[in-house]
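Interim report, section 4.2 (structural modelling).
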Amino acid sequence: MKASRAFAVTKRVLRDLKNDRRQLALIFIAPLLVISIFGVAFTGNVKDVHVVVVNGDTAVGNSSLSDKIISNFDTSVLNVAYANSESEAVGQVQNGSASAVIVFPANFTQSVAARASGQTSVAKENVTITLLADKSNPNVSDPIIATVNTAVAQTIQGLGRQAPVSVDSSNAIYGANAQFIDFFAPGILCIAVWQLTTLLTLISFVGERTSGTLFRLLASPLKESELVAGYAVAFGIIGTAQSAVLLTASVILFHVTIVGDVLLAFGVIALLAVVSEGLGILLSSFARREAQAIQFLPIVVLPAFLLSGVFWPIQAIPTWLRPVSYLIPVTYAVEAVRSVILRGWGIDKIYPDVIALLIFASVFLSLATLLLRRRE
Amino acid sequence: MKDDVCIRNLEKDFGGFKAINNLSLRVKHGEIYGLLGPNGAGKTTAIKILCGLLRPSSGEAYVLGTKVPDPGMASSVGYMPQELALYRNLTVHENLAFYGEVFGLSKKEIETREQALLKLVDLEASKDVLIDELSGGMQHRISLACTLLHEPQLLFLDEPTVGVDPDLRATFWRYFEGLRDAGITMLITTHYMDEARHCDRIGFMRDGRIIAEGSPQELLELTHTDSLEDAFLAYSRTEGLQ
Ligand SMILES: Nc1ncnc2c1ncn2[C@@H]1O[C@H](COP(=O)(O)OP(=O)(O)OP(=O)(O)O)[C@@H](O)[C@H]1O
Ligand SMILES: [Mg+2]
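Predicted structure of the assembly:
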């Protein structure tokens, strides 16, 4: 393998792009449009969510801790109604008239007081407020959880002591301050790079086949591996540039939070671009014309869009479908990039995802090289 | 002298269809060999086998003494595919530079050869024009320039003059003859029977094999015709009778 020949290919691909405004627009404008649409659609704060409170607390008036918590709910977010039984409340969520049920256990105030005063006769565990949210839409259930948590914290602070109260909402996925766009912006970066890199390699490579340039190259000293590597470097660069533009736009337009090392995130995205490039070359062997190549697009895009954890976490995907998620390279990239950007994780924590991507890359690139080497 | 190209009992099967059917031919060092024949005769297929792009189904082919396919001889061979084989979004110069780099030429070498070749194909002024913005014939001329850039000693030219205007075609053939005189071997396919007279030897190809072979003069004499077109038709007819 000779680097100068591979580099010649890289230069060629980049020049091709530079001279083609349409492709440039596809790479940079289209994902910007997508992220703007999602951003505008999802950044609006959730307002006026109907929740049903089932208050088993027997304390009334000023001494009632549950009422204090409820009065601390942010009323612009939560629209509170009451029900007498949990089943009645759950029924309201099921028929769609409410989004969550908040249950205060019987003797809530007393239990908290007992634990706070350190009585030994009571159990040590916290008193639990149960939150049954309609988890089908994290856009809604998330702010509910955040609001309830905030109210509980405020109330307890008001008491001036460490009170043993916890909210059981087994759906607390993001930090209380994270907005939904923070959650999906890293996913959009990955999806954009995945989709466009696969598409562009697929089309360029079908082009190499139909225009005859591939014949010229295969009859030249250029090795198949150099061709694949040259493309890989080019698309690694393009993918990084693309995600840099996208990320900058998301920060400027939607104030997406970046906690971690942006360069590490770009590294992961470049790796994803290489994986996508390998896939694009692989798929190109099965298409004779550009039009046939386009038909592969839904197969490449849809599963990744739905199953790689861009809009909802992998944990929200049915167990029987999850293995499919783990067969999609984007899943690992989304996980890693999100962890870096949102949680500030370093390579020491995301390395399993990086290794998975490296495996995908080596498998796809080797297969692509082998397929190119094959002679009819 | 050793033959630069030697094909023996070559067959190429495309899923039951024999595109090359017991083809044997030799191209001597320093000659222009013209492969003539109707559409689908198997000319392109034969050249692709010689360039290592297709695998023979049976029989064998040697290029510069090496049995194909063998990637080792690529730098000594120039291949002009029947397709345009240029990057349409790249300028003339960017195409030439790319192929030059692939063949390991230095920047300096590319520059000097590019200048000479653009002069040959009469497109010096179009150096920075996108391929897409050139006329069909001009594109073809650039394709030839790309093939010649690394100064190969053996050329496989698949219809190098198609779509090129008569004036320039004459120039091309003068150039090919010049290359031959400098010791370069050429296997050229063409549909223009009139220009085939520039070849040292001609092979008439039909249904995947050679039906007649010889110098243009010999073929004319043997068929008692005065154009290669008629000569080919004469052979084609006798083939049909058999
Ligand atoms: N990849 C392929 N698969 C199946 N058949 C093929 C393939 N390539 C060529 N053929 C067939 O082989 C035959 C010879 O094709 P080839 O391209 O060699 O002809 P040719 O002499 O170059 O014709 P032309 O003058 O039109 O260029 C044709 O009948 C063609 O249909
Ligand atoms: Mg042909």
